[in-house]
Amino acid sequence: MRTQEETLSFEDLLNQSYAKDNVLEGEIVQATVLAVSKDFISVDIGYKSEGLISAHEFPSINGELQIKEGDLIEVMVESREDDSGRLILSKEKADRVKVWDNISLACERNEIVEGTITGRVKGGLQVDIGVRAFLPGSQIDLRPVRNLDKMIGERFQFKVIKFNRKRGNIVLSRRALLEKEREEKRGITLQHLAEGAILDGTIKNMTDYGAFVDLGGVDGLLHVTDMSWGRVQNPSELFEVGSPVKVKVLKYDPEHERVSLGIKQIQEDPWLSVQQEFQVGTQVKGKVVSLTDYGAFIELRPGIEGLIHVSEMSWTKRVKHPSKVLDIGDEISAIVLDIDQESKRISLGIKQVEPNPWTLLEEKYPIGTVIRGQVRNITDFGIFIGIEEGIDGLVHISDLSWTHRVKHPSEIFQKSDEVEAVVLNIDMENERFSLGIKQLHEDPWGRIPHVYPRGARVKGKVSKVTDFGAFIEIEPGIDGLCHVSEFDEEHVESPHEFVKPGDEVEVMIIDVDPEERKIGLSMKAVKKAKKGFDYRTYLAQQSAASSQPKSTSMGTWGDSLKGFNIQGE
Asked: Which domains does the chain have, with CATH numbers?
């Protein structure tokens, strides 16, 4: 059988031989792989001598070249012959020329190219599309990309926006393709975008107050309050960028292209069944999710929270801040105190889980009981005595002494003093325990009218001098007032010139009012009595005159005495 060459005419063979002898440097020709070695690949391009190609120009996997004998490849002639008479060929350069041709054609036809991002360079990224190309930072995505390193090794499609083969300059854009894709999706999305519509989207970006969702060329805001019926501190608790979501369009403003979205609105409002699930007076369990100055919020179930006011945390302790009792994350039991479904509020209490110690106080400490305790606190208005853990009784300043005028409780008591007191009153509703110390003793004013009747003459010591008279102590803790008009028969201009504190004086009792705890005294009456004037008879007559109401003024008896005619003394 004759070969193809034998069938060719002499002229054909001559032309073919002539053509092979005139292979030009830089020409791209087809070659057949003859042999594969570690360093070189031997090929036949139909020339009178074989060609050699460096092995590193061929891809390899685990050190094994991905080429075999008989494969057809395209190569570029670098040199017609080396010292051994062999052709020097390059597959890489042939591939590069072919790539440039394809890129040039794609650029002319406005077609896309594919490539792999290989690294970062100044101002953007380097992309391998067969040859090196530059992807500016502004053309990477629709939004600025913060972490460019994450994109290295990724393969994308690009549009060639600048091409200069002579300078070897290729500039790509991924953003141009994304914008086109977004516009196509946008048109489809706008056909379905309406308030109340339920759409599929993707989390595009997150902030502290919400997340932006890509609905397909149109972005909408999913506010943090519309993500769940439950409490959401930060969107990152529920989503990640790129997460698929199903959302409901809550509001759509076509003019300003603003879309408000919600996820919880797709689900049933848990407050619709709150009356059936929780009843006032029942005990519930929940988790502390938030603390404020005025209380703690407890999640009873997703979307349902109750408030424990600071006043409902302890029967006995004055809780200044909820953090003194509870921590976020605590699992607790509480009693439902009130439910306002319309306002979506549930009031809870944790002190109600335990018995109210105030309900036992009336039985344990009936009125009149004498108790003993330690002074825990001293104020301007009284002292607090510890009764039980967390329960103090107040002794008001007016209940400290029957006779001593106490300006401040610290004059008599100090903290930690052990004292006795009498139970005066227990106000369970307002949680007040009233005590008295002076009630441990008999009220001296019960005997004063009998011990010091009107007309009696006593000696006393001046304790205080005022512009209107002098207070005279007639026995320890018992003072009477001698009005300036009762100092002397002559007019006294200034009490301070007549007597001074510490002076011993003799006075007559001219008025006793045990209810008001007042005693009227007179130095003038003593002087007149010494002259023979019978004040006792006058005072008795005044007491018998029931038709005239008694005055509580300390100056009343003095005024009467001033008007009494003492002719004939």
From this structure: 24-109 (2.40.50.140), 110-178 (2.40.50.140), 193-266 (2.40.50.140), 280-353 (2.40.50.140), 358-440 (2.40.50.140), 444-563 (2.40.50.140)
Helical (H) or strand (E) element with 490:
none
Kindly give, in sequence order, each residue whose CB lies less than 8 Å from that of residue 218, ignoring residues fewer than 6 positions away: 186, 189, 190, 193, 257, 259
- Determine the average pLDDT of the residues in 318-346: 90
Longest distance between any two alpha carbons in the chain, whole Å: 188
Which tens digits make up the pLDDT trace of 61-88?
677 877 888 988 888 887 766 666 678 8
What is the pTM (predicted TM-score) of this model?
0.44
Phi-psi region of 257 (alpha: psi -120 to 50; beta: other; left: phi over 0): left
Contact in structure between 52 and 65 (CB atoms under 8 Å): no
CA distance 350 to 500: 63
Query: What is the rounded CA–CA span in Å between residue 355 and residue 335?
Result: 12
Torsions phi, psi for 395 (to 5 deg): -100, 110
Burial 117-133 (b: 16+ CB within 10 A, else e): beeeeeebbbbebbbeb
Non-local (6+) Cβ contacts of 562 within 8 A are: 485
Backbone angles phi and psi of 175, in degrees to 5: -60, -40
Rounded to whole angstroms, what are the CA distances from 78 to 128, 239, 293? 24, 58, 84
Compute the CA torsion angle 429, 433, 438, 444 (nearest 10 deg): 20
Instruction: Give counts: helices (H), strands (E), the chain.
Output: 11, 32
